[in-house]
Amino acid sequence: MTAVPAVSAGRRPMGGQQVAVALLLPIALINVVGFMLPIFNLARYSFNRATVGGGIENVLTLQNWTGLLGDPFYLQLILNSVFVSLGVTLCALILSYPIALYLHRASGSWRTFLTVLVISPLLTSAVVRTYGWIAILAEEGPVVSAIRGMGLTPPPLMFNINGVFIGLTEILMPYMILALLAGFGRLDPRVEEAARTLGATPWQSFRRVILPLTAPGIALGCLLCFVLAVSSFITPKLMGGGRVFLLATEIYDQAIVTLNWPLASTLSILVLVIFGAALVAYSAVLKRLD
Amino acid sequence: MKNRSLAASAAVLALTAGAVQAETVVLSAYSGIFEENYRAAVVEPFMEAHPDIDVEFYGMPNSAQMLGTLRAQKSAPQIDVMILDVSVAKAATDEGLFAPLDESVTAHVADLYPQARVEGVNAVGVTFDNLVMLYNTDKVTEAPTSWEALWDPQWKGQVSIPAVPDIQGTTLTIIANRLAGGEGYMDGMEPGIAKLMELAPNVQTWEPRPDVYQPISSGTAAIGIGWNARAQVYADKSDGKLGVVLPEEGSGFQINVIGLVQDAPAGDAAKTFLDYALSPEVQARFTETMFYAPTNQKAAALVSEAALERTAAGSMDEMIPINWLEVATIRDAVTEQWRRRIIPLSR
Amino acid sequence: MMVERAMAAEAALGTPEGPDHLVLSEVGMTFGTLDVIPSLSLSVRRGEMVAFLGPSGCGKTTTLRMIAGLLDPTRGRISVGGRDITHLPVHDRDMGMVFQSYALFPHMTVAQNVAFGLEMRRMAKVEIRARVERALAMVQLGHLAGRKPKALSGGQQQRVALARALVVEPSILLLDEPLSNLDAKLRDEMRVQIRSLQQQSGITAVFVTHDQVEALSMCDRIVVMRGGHVEQYGTPNEIYERPATPFVASFVGRTNRLSGRVDPSGRLLIEGRPVAAEGRLPEGAVEVLVRPHRMSLRAASEEPPAGLNSLPGVLTGATFVGDLIQATVRIGAGEITVEQLTRRRSGLPEPGSAVTVAWEAGDTMVYPEGRA
């Protein structure tokens, strides 16, 4: 009897490890087959040569990379993508933050109702929502008419960067709100009250207490929205009128229309690099916040 | 005794099963409105005529995806016959994805228009389409006759153009080049580019979605360019809102080719289908249905006057000859010009 | 802003309202259809520490939050030093508040936490540093100034919260169950420390608690609340010795309940035996309350002590708890508890034997039946 615990105690760590390995194996395999291999293929294509008409010549060349990084059009495209995504992320943050804060403070069924309301756009495809925006912002649409009604000349809102901005911001807001809510865990209403009783005005308590405490949520939301903005192509395609050149739309064009897979792969790897940079920035921000 | 009779009946069953069991041909072509019409005009009549062959239509939204699918299935193809754009078919041929196709496969190959047979492509033309001008009949009350209508300042912000790299944009460049007095497209496109720079301020969108036909039908845009076959079909469905015109200066062809996939499983059944698809009667029937011009020279005589007028079949001579394989070599350069010089002028 | 505050303070000193510093007049709070506090009036004198004592849901925290400005009263008036603050925003009220959960700013160090209120008052940096140092020294936490709150123990966090509230020298210190998250030993220490800090600074303080020991030991006066009403407002001694209602008597300290009646001649009878009590007695059925340790027990065979009330009963059990013996005695249909200090050579009668329970007339608390 007494020997049994000793034996099992000696074996348990090994058994636990084996179980862990067994449990991790399927997901590891799926990751290798579903993620690592395609990425590896993508990287390989980026060093192949595209032939006229969409063929791929299986040689090793740097020409996609040198061509891309030496071309002012593509450099501009990369900058555009990064700046538009940053701008959209910022807009989504500014618009989502008060909503998330209100949701965080709401309680009971009211909160559930509002949360469902916030999430509900995610149940509709981005394509449908984008067409909705096209109808709203179109030349004869309500927004333009309203601005005209006030006696002002409306700026072009559709088929240009403005449209992309508006559409992307709205499409990313639910993600931002959810990320913010997830990050608002540390925000205890008592802490705000403490600030207020110590003489902080609502603005001061926001600046000095609420904002710093919600910073992790802000960082998470921004990372998520930035990544989604860089990689979204449906909305820029539909609302950009062919005037807005972004990495994602260019990848689509190169892969689907021009059939230049090596160039499309190179651009895709570049997007991954940008994501990597965003992750590094995110963890640096988190470290500073801690 | 008992055993033998059982074995015999099993054999009979196997035989009849073999006789009744249809061979299957997998055809891959464009999904959507093309699939709808091609099924009705070609696939279903074929299966009636050949009860032993079953045709499975596998639709895909564009040629690029078809090429991608062929590449992915290279070692074990699942598709037997494919209809796709000629320049993509060239890439597929170069990669060994299409089996050779000539008169030995079907005698109809000999009857095709010369434009339908492209050197270096293991597939032959199955439909001709041509660029047309589209207009909303509420906004543009008088039917335009010339491409120049696109440049009319009264349509400022109302013109819808699918820009390069879409080949509608490429075709427009070639037409504009000719309008501006340029030589052949291989001798430089500068006059055409300059001409399009003047068009840019008129353009509402370079990326009409979901396609160019809907916004013009609905009046979101007033005028634009598109492909004839689809334009004709949508015009019929638009309650007279969508006008289609083949301008007097002529136009350029887009060619869909049909080819046999290399090492495809169906074998002779696939060839039977190909033979059927290229026959004059079937070519004529599809023209009546969807207004693609036939590629078989003997088909035109079988098409009704009404349908013929709505295709380029009656005006083959007015078409600007475009060798898409040549164009492919200058496509990147044209795209670059569009992006750097034309599109920025329309902001 | 500083000048205003100083002027207000000066005006408060000379106010004709005399010693009353914080005054609540007919304050009421309604949440939806629920009258949490129907109408409440009370005042707290300058430099006094008052406890709001009651079971949960009695409205004590709601009242505190209305004083702090974190809740807007539905009706009534709140004033400090004669100045109406009923609708003054929280940040202009000049109150220091200590929360049950301490509510320290987790992203700030201890020193930054304490400095926060001073910064909000736009005090000079040098002055802030000096005051923070003093405040932290006062709670013996000077050595932890650079730590983040999560690196502190519960008691240390509590002291930081206290320093943070006191450093701004608020006109009133509000404490919301400040000790309930501490273990018993620490709670005793903090009780002493909070009381001594309050007395040193002479600050007016309101202390919300459900713990009678805290209320009795720390506060000058106690407001016993129930269901949004004040049951009794008085010094700890008054509350304990002369509870206004049976509820107060049983909520503050423990008590035995006996049923009795006062006959038309004004005699109090329990189990048909006359019992002496002080003061005027209500006629009819009454409830008689006597605290267990004010009763004594002896064998029925002994002569009952002269001049004391006495009732016969049967000893049903006894528990030895060190310095005390708790005995349960059945009297009529009811059962009561008697507590006696243990003595070396005195034993209790055997359980089951007849006993006599005795107490002084002054320890008899009589309430009309049905007042609960």
UniProtKB/TrEMBL annotation, chain A:
<feature type="transmembrane region" description="Helical">
    <location>
        <begin position="209"/>
        <end position="234"/>
    </location>
</feature>
<dbReference type="InterPro" id="IPR000515">
    <property type="entry name" value="MetI-like"/>
</dbReference>
<feature type="transmembrane region" description="Helical">
    <location>
        <begin position="113"/>
        <end position="137"/>
    </location>
</feature>
<protein>
    <submittedName>
        <fullName>Spermidine/putrescine transport system permease protein</fullName>
    </submittedName>
</protein>
<feature type="transmembrane region" description="Helical">
    <location>
        <begin position="157"/>
        <end position="181"/>
    </location>
</feature>
<dbReference type="InterPro" id="IPR035906">
    <property type="entry name" value="MetI-like_sf"/>
</dbReference>
<keyword id="KW-0472">Membrane</keyword>
<feature type="transmembrane region" description="Helical">
    <location>
        <begin position="73"/>
        <end position="101"/>
    </location>
</feature>
<feature type="transmembrane region" description="Helical">
    <location>
        <begin position="20"/>
        <end position="40"/>
    </location>
</feature>
<comment type="similarity">
    <text>Belongs to the binding-protein-dependent transport system permease family. CysTW subfamily.</text>
</comment>
<dbReference type="Pfam" id="PF00528">
    <property type="entry name" value="BPD_transp_1"/>
</dbReference>
<feature type="domain" description="ABC transmembrane type-1">
    <location>
        <begin position="78"/>
        <end position="282"/>
    </location>
</feature>
<keyword id="KW-0813">Transport</keyword>
<keyword id="KW-0812">Transmembrane</keyword>
<keyword id="KW-1133">Transmembrane helix</keyword>
Automatic annotation (TrEMBL), chain B:
<protein>
    <submittedName>
        <fullName>Spermidine/putrescine transport system substrate-binding protein</fullName>
    </submittedName>
</protein>
<dbReference type="Pfam" id="PF13416">
    <property type="entry name" value="SBP_bac_8"/>
</dbReference>
<dbReference type="InterPro" id="IPR006059">
    <property type="entry name" value="SBP"/>
</dbReference>
<feature type="signal peptide">
    <location>
        <begin position="1"/>
        <end position="22"/>
    </location>
</feature>
<keyword id="KW-0732">Signal</keyword>
Automatic annotation (TrEMBL), chain C:
<keyword id="KW-0813">Transport</keyword>
<dbReference type="InterPro" id="IPR003439">
    <property type="entry name" value="ABC_transporter-like_ATP-bd"/>
</dbReference>
<dbReference type="Pfam" id="PF08402">
    <property type="entry name" value="TOBE_2"/>
</dbReference>
<dbReference type="InterPro" id="IPR013611">
    <property type="entry name" value="Transp-assoc_OB_typ2"/>
</dbReference>
<dbReference type="InterPro" id="IPR008995">
    <property type="entry name" value="Mo/tungstate-bd_C_term_dom"/>
</dbReference>
<dbReference type="InterPro" id="IPR003593">
    <property type="entry name" value="AAA+_ATPase"/>
</dbReference>
<protein>
    <submittedName>
        <fullName>Spermidine/putrescine transport system ATP-binding protein</fullName>
    </submittedName>
</protein>
<dbReference type="GO" id="GO:0005524">
    <property type="term" value="F:ATP binding"/>
</dbReference>
<feature type="domain" description="ABC transporter">
    <location>
        <begin position="22"/>
        <end position="252"/>
    </location>
</feature>
<dbReference type="Pfam" id="PF00005">
    <property type="entry name" value="ABC_tran"/>
</dbReference>
<dbReference type="InterPro" id="IPR017871">
    <property type="entry name" value="ABC_transporter-like_CS"/>
</dbReference>
<keyword id="KW-0547">Nucleotide-binding</keyword>
<dbReference type="InterPro" id="IPR027417">
    <property type="entry name" value="P-loop_NTPase"/>
</dbReference>
<dbReference type="InterPro" id="IPR050093">
    <property type="entry name" value="ABC_SmlMolc_Importer"/>
</dbReference>
<keyword id="KW-0067">ATP-binding</keyword>
